[in-house]
Design goal:
With 248 residues, this protein is of the alpha+beta class. It has six helices and eight strands. It has a domain of 150 residues. The strands form two sheets. Strands 1, 2, 4, 5, 7 and 8 form a six-stranded antiparallel beta sheet that branches. Strands 3-6 form a two-stranded antiparallel ribbon. The longest helix has 28 residues.
Length: 248
C-alpha cells in the first residue's frame, strides 16, 4: 500500500509502463536537379525566328487568296484591253473597221419602236464596231453597239425595250452600212442576240455566220443559233469598254 499524497510532496509517477519518445519519421525526398542557367540571347533569337516564319507563311497564304483568279499585272476591275480580250472566243476587230465609230445621233442608227423611243429620249452617243472570229472553220461576225443614255433610268427603259419582240433595235454595223459583207445585208437575220446594261450604257450585240457557212436546214440553223451565235454574242458583251472609248 502506497503512502498517501501530501501537499508539497512530489507526485509519484504513474505505475504504467512509460513509452519512450520516438524520433520523427525519416522523410525521403528526391531533390530536383538544378536547371541549367538560362541564355536570354538565344531565347530571344529563337522567338524572333519563329515570328518571322509565321509572318512569311501568312504572307504567302494571303497572296494566293487575294491573287486567285486575277491575271498578273491587272486589277480585278481595271477594264484593261488585255483582260477584255480574254474571253471564250478570239474576237478580233474586222479589217474594214479596226476602230469603233461614234455618233451623237442615235435616232439615225435605229429602227422600229427603238427609234421612236430615242426620239423621245435622246441618247448621249452611240459607239459601234464589228468583230470577227472562226469556230470550227466557220466565220462568225458580231456587231457590238454601245448606247449611252443620259442616266441609268433611261438606260433601263431602253434595255427593257430591246428585249421585246418586234420592238426594233439599233442597226447592226452591216445593216447600217458601216461594213459591207458579200451576200449579207444585216446580221440580225441569224438570230444571235445578247444585251445588258452597264450603268447608263446599254450594250447590244448581234451575230451571224458568213453566208458561205450558213445552212438552209431549219434544225441546223436553230442549233447554230443556240450553240454558236448566242454564245458569241454573250462573250462579245465584254468588249463594251473597248468599243465605247468616249465614256472611258
Amino acid at each position: 500500500m502506497s503512502a498517501p499524497y501530501r501537499p508539497g510532496q512530489p507526485q509519484w509517477p504513474a505505475n504504467g509502463p512509460q513509452r519512450p519518445d520516438r524520433p520523427p519519421p525519416i522523410q525521403f525526398r528526391q531533390d530536383e536537379p538544378p536547371r541549367p542557367p538560362g541564355k536570354p540571347g538565344l531565347q530571344w533569337a529563337l522567338r524572333i525566328v519563329g515570328l518571322v516564319a509565321v509572318a512569311v507563311i501568312s504572307g504567302v497564304v494571303w497572296y494566293y487568296i487575294t491573287d486567285d483568279g486575277k491575271s498578273p499585272g491587272t486589277g480585278a476591275d481595271d477594264g484593261g484591253t488585255e483582260q477584255q480580250n480574254e474571253g471564250r472566243f478570239a474576237l478580233e476587230p474586222h479589217p474594214d473597221m479596226p476602230e469603233p465609230e461614234t455618233d451623237e445621233n442615235c435616232v439615225e442608227h435605229a429602227y422600229g419602236r427603238i427609234q421612236a423611243h430615242l426620239q423621245a429620249t435622246p441618247c448621249d452617243h452611240l459607239s459601234q464596231q464589228l468583230f470577227v472570229t472562226e469556230i470550227d472553220g466557220r466565220t462568225v461576225y458580231a456587231s457590238v453597239s454601245v448606247v449611252t443614255m443620259p442616266d441609268e433610268e433611261a438606260a433601263a427603259e431602253l434595255r427593257a425595250l430591246t428585249d421585246e419582240d418586234g420592238s426594233g433595235n439599233i442597226n447592226d454595223v452591216v445593216r447600217d452600212g458601216g461594213v459591207t459583207i458579200e451576200g449579207m445585208d444585216r446580221l440580225s437575220a441569224g438570230g444571235g442576240y445578247a444585251a445588258k446594261q452597264n450603268g447608263r450604257e446599254v450594250v447590244i450585240v448581234e451575230a451571224d455566220l458568213d453566208p458561205k457557212d450558213q445552212s438552209e436546214d431549219e434544225q441546223t440553223q436553230k442549233k447554230d443559233e443556240d450553240e454558236i451565235l448566242d454564245p458569241v454574242c454573250n462573250d462579245a458583251l465584254r468588249l463594251a469598254q473597248q468599243v465605247d472609248t468616249k465614256s472611258g
